[in-house]
């Protein structure tokens, strides 16, 4: 059964967001959240609690309680530390501390290589900006097109899961900025030009897709237009 809504959330502010030199000494997948990033994740959880109308959802449950209800939500996360931290704090903010998080490497961050040399980062970013972020391949890393390929297989898995009557009412995916853009590109069949015109989401931005009467999803959250 298709979820009523799908929510895509970028991780909270990370140490790498405030100090780019971190990437030269810490593996990208191990970069943690800042204290501000943790607060952002807690606030995102509180917002989801309101959007899900949690209290009312269970108030209308059968007399046997929550266990008789369709599960409220499924939470997926990239296995990178900042995303896992975000997902864990979203659960706390929602009031679902013991809810299971499914990690899936296919929704990880775009790989920029291994340790990123600080003096080369600006050169790479300038080249990427001129070339286009979808097709530009990072030295020893991935292009946006590579991310598209693995996100496609993740979406295929979701569609198979949606065929189960027991699939939860809501789906929450905690991931990374470019991965969110790629997910939306694949889902809504955007062109490369569509992809390039949108900016990277901010930390803990929430993008909501609602199921319509025609059994298709509509993106109800606006994306920022990229401003060079």
Number of domains: 1
CATH homologous superfamily, by name? Answer: Phosphoglycerate mutase-like
Gross CATH architecture: 3-Layer(aba) Sandwich
Q: Tell me roughly what share of residues is in helical segments.
A: 40-55%
Structural class: alpha/beta
Main pleated sheet: 6 strands, mixed
Task: List low-pLDDT spans.
Answer: none
Q: Could you tell me the radius of gyration in angstroms? A: 18 Å
Ends distance: 42 Å
* Main sheet: strand order: 3-2-4-1-5-6
Question: Average pLDDT, to the nearest integer?
Answer: 94
Number of strands: 6
Shape: globular
Which topology does CATH recognise?
Rossmann fold
- What's the helix count? 8
CATH class: Alpha Beta
| Strand fraction | 5-15%
Order of helices and strands: EHHHEHEHHEHHEE
Topology:
Layout: E1 5-10, H1 15-18, H2 35-52, H3 54-59, E2 73-77, H4 81-94, E3 101-103, H5 118-131, H6 144-162, E4 170-175, H7 177-188, H8 192-197, E5 206-211, E6 217-219
Helix pairs in contact: 2-4, 6-7
Task: Explain what the structure shows.
There is one protein chain. The chain has one domain: Phosphoglycerate mutase-like (Rossmann fold). Helices cover 41% and strands 13% of the residues. The protein has helices at residues 15-18, 35-52, 54-59, 81-94, 118-131, 144-162, 177-188, 192-197, and strands at 5-10, 73-77, 101-103, 170-175, 206-211, 217-219. It starts with a strand and ends in a 9-residue tail after the last strand. The mean pLDDT is 94.
Describe what is shown at a glance:
By secondary structure, the protein is an alpha/beta fold. The chain has eight helices and six strands, in the order E-H-H-H-E-H-E-H-H-E-H-H-E-E.
